[in-house]
Write a structure and sequence with these properties.
heterodimer, A: 310 residues, 12 helices, B: 370 residues, mainly alpha, ABC transporter involved in vitamin B12 uptake, BtuC
Chain lengths: 310, 370
């Protein structure tokens, strides 16, 4: 009995951590290159909505996911234009994008389905374990059976991100651009192009994170379904010191807190649902109180780079 | 005088072009739905300014966003980005209902000010949590205020469902909205004073909001408190060097900012809603407030015309909807305006003294109010 509860807690923790993890990795790319990505929330909304829309249009959930990613990239390019080329305030730009995406999505809901609030349920979803053979493993089988394709992709991306940013020359360039863009520029690294690429990768991952929320759970898009997860991912990024592997632990930690709801119910904890729903947000603040002083952001994070600055 | 006008133009140029751009993008979206943009905009303006009652409707739409706009403006002036006006507003609405309910035996002249002060303080304290976290632990206020928004929403939902529910107070099962505040705690409707306001729900709260804008202008530009807040916003290290505490002013600015959002909540409850409903989502006034503040050049008096514009959009959107155009167009217009301001596109085309605006929204404060 307790094993069953433990496994269900663990799987829901991992499933809840997955969108956070993808969004936080999105943050790793853009912030390591020096662009603060407050727009994660909006890009996730965009990914969640467009992946559902195109699943409706094409009937294939995977085509839906790829369009979610594509529209994540489109949304993030707006951030790239403002942050890199126009050297605007990145926090305002991110907030503006969040608001704009919310409005555009509500508008599209209205003109496509003539309804507000949520889309109809998509004809296909990605909520089942793709690797059936893992379910044959004794004991761990039940654990694997509850995972979605997104879980595997997200954890794979942790390794990929670590490899790309820490083990390749281009990754070194990215981190140099985020720490000291002028020095990077001096040695011939194209700061603008590096930041553009990182913001677009960030958009792809955050779009995927959005698809995880919609196609990977309920199979529909609901307004407000992102519910601050883009910002929790930013907190996980700080907690994980802008490092993909540490960020993964941070996301697991937040996932566990979100799954606490299930644990509380299993043990018959009689707390008002509002307080249980509050847990991830309170945990985020408590974690930040604990770590922020010590966490060091990339030095040029949030600073626009002026090429010909004296 | 001419110099002043030129300065005014240099400051307002960006928001004006941004607003124009927003309307152009909005027109494209309207055309996409197969409607005539001109007809739609006619409906929008006629619906919000066409008659005295519709002007009244616009006035009550303006009221809460004028407060949250002021809240955002004052935080910008201290170099802070308060996205938490939502939560501060929500917390204050609960405090308002609680004070109004439990203080209903008091005379109106005592109760109403008490309610407004309670709303101000509730919002202010909620805001100063983020200020404290920023000042003492260096936690980015963008993340902390977003988290506090959701926490506020869930606290409010709980308070409304259980301790402040009519049924629970009467010993029955809980329900979806709070107690309704007593008549003695309600603000006067404008139509009771001027009958031509007709069907409009406009209330005297708009005057409280305008007064708050005046007071904020005075505090920011005519007192030491405001001077210190602005100095921290312009250059925190220089301020510290000159003996102005960054920590103290961060907390104070967040208290004032939250307080204004909270006052907005208190006025909305006492003037219009009279209770708090359970809600799955945040009301959105705080986010509109950010746009209001930026279009208003983060100036307490600039916020007034800016709030009017967003009030017109919000009220007029219903008229557009009646004309068969999705009301979300107006949210798209405000989103585009904000994106435009964030990029300060126009400044890249024509550089001027506002150049620093895009980089730091609090940096263009030098001359105003002087």
């Amino acid at each position: 009995m307790t094993t069953a509860i433990f496994i269900s807690l663990l799987t829901s923790a991992i499933r809840l951590a997955t969108p956070l993890l993808l969004a936080a990795l999105a943050g790793v790319y853009s912030e390591r290159s020096g662009v603060v990505n407050i727009a994660l929330e909006g890009i996730m909304t965009s990914g969640a909505f467009f992946s559902i829309w195109f699943t409706h249009v094409t009937g294939s959930a995977w085509l839906g996911v790829s369009m979610g990613i594509a529209f994540g990239i489109v949304t993030s390019s707006l951030l790239a234009v403002i942050a890199v080329n126009l050297k605007g305030n990145q926090v305002i730009a991110g907030t503006a994008i969040n608001l704009l995406v919310t409005a555009v999505v509500a508008f599209l809901l209205e003109i496509i389905w003539h309804r507000s609030g949520s889309t109809p349920t998509a004809p296909a979803m990605l909520t089942t374990n793709p690797l059936k053979f893992l379910e044959g493993i004794p004991f761990l089988g039940t654990f694997f059976s509850q995972l979605t394709p997104f879980v595997y992709i997200a954890f794979l991306m942790v390794g990929v991100t670590f490899f790309v940013l820490w083990k390749t020359p281009w990754g070194l360039h990215v981190r140099a651009v985020g720490e000291h863009p002028r020095a990077a520029d001096t040695v011939g690294i194209n700061v603008y192009r590096t930041r553009w690429i990182c913001v677009l990768i960030s958009g792809a991952l955050a779009g995927l994170a959005g698809a995880t929320l919609s196609l990977g759970t309920v199979g529909l898009f609901r307004e407000g379904m992102v519910a601050g997860k883009g910002f929790i991912a930013l907190a996980a990024l700080v907690f994980g010191k802008w490092h993909p592997i540490k960020t993964m632990y941070a996301c697991m930690f937040f996932g566990l807190f979100s799954a606490f709801n299930i644990l509380a119910q299993s043990f018959g904890v009689d707390a008002p649902t509002e307080f249980l729903a509050m847990i991830p947000y309170v945990a985020t603040i408590l974690v930040l109180i604990g770590v922020v002083g010590k966490a060091q952001a990339p030095k040029a994070d949030g600073e626009p780079y002026e090429k010909d600055e004296k | 005088m001419k110099g002043k006008l030129r300065y005014l133009w240099s400051v307002t140029k960006l928001p004006i072009v941004a607003v124009a751009f927003g309307f152009i993008v909005g027109a494209v979206c309207i055309a996409v739905t197969g409607n005539n943009p001109l007809v739609a905009y006619m409906a929008l303006f006629k619906g919000s300014l066409g008659s005295i009652p519709s002007i009244g409707e616009t006035m009550y739409k303006v009221t809460p966003i004028l407060f949250t706009g002021l809240a955002a403006a004052i935080s910008f002036r201290c170099g802070l980005f308060n996205i938490g006006a939502e939560g501060q507003y929500v917390v204050a609405t609960v405090a308002t209902v609680a004070v109004a309910w439990f203080g209903q035996g008091l005379p109106r002249l005592v109760l109403l000010p008490l309610i407004l002060i309670a709303g101000f303080c509730a919002g202010g304290l909620w805001g100063s949590i983020a200020g404290l976290l920023k000042a003492k632990r260096g936690i980015n206020e963008v993340i902390s205020t977003i988290m506090l928004n959701w926490i506020a929403l869930y606290i409010a939902n709980y308070m409304v469902r259980v301790p402040l529910s009519t049924n629970v107070l009467a010993g029955l099962p809980p329900e979806g909205h709070s107690v309704i505040i007593p008549n003695v705690a309600k603000l006067t409707k404008l139509k009771e004073m001027v009958p031509s306001f007709g069907y409009s729900s406009a209330h005297t709260g708009i005057f409280i909001a305008l007064a708050a804008a005046g007071v904020m202008w005075y505090i920011l530009f005519k007192t030491t408190i405001g001077y210190e807040i602005r100095t921290v916003g312009l250059n925190a290290s220089a301020a510290e060097y000159g003996g102005i505490s960054k920590a103290k002013n961060t907390i104070l600015a967040m208290f004032l900012s939250g307080g204004l959002a909270g006052l907005g909540g208190a006025v909305q409850i006492t003037g219009l809603v009279f209770m708090v409903n359970q809600s799955p989502a945040l009301p959105g006034y705080g986010f509109t407030g950010l746009s209001v503040a930026l279009v208003g050049c983060t100036h307490p008096l600039g916020v007034i015309p800016s709030a009017l514009l967003f009030g017109i959009l919000e009220n007029g959107s219903r008229q557009m909807q009646l004309a068969g155009i999705p009301s979300e167009i107006t949210s798209i217009i405000s989103g585009v305006i904000l994106v435009f301001i964030a990029g300060s596109l126009i400044l890249k085309l024509a550089g001027d003294r506002l150049k620093s605006f895009g980089k730091n929204p609090v940096a263009d404060t030098g001359k105003e109010g002087a």
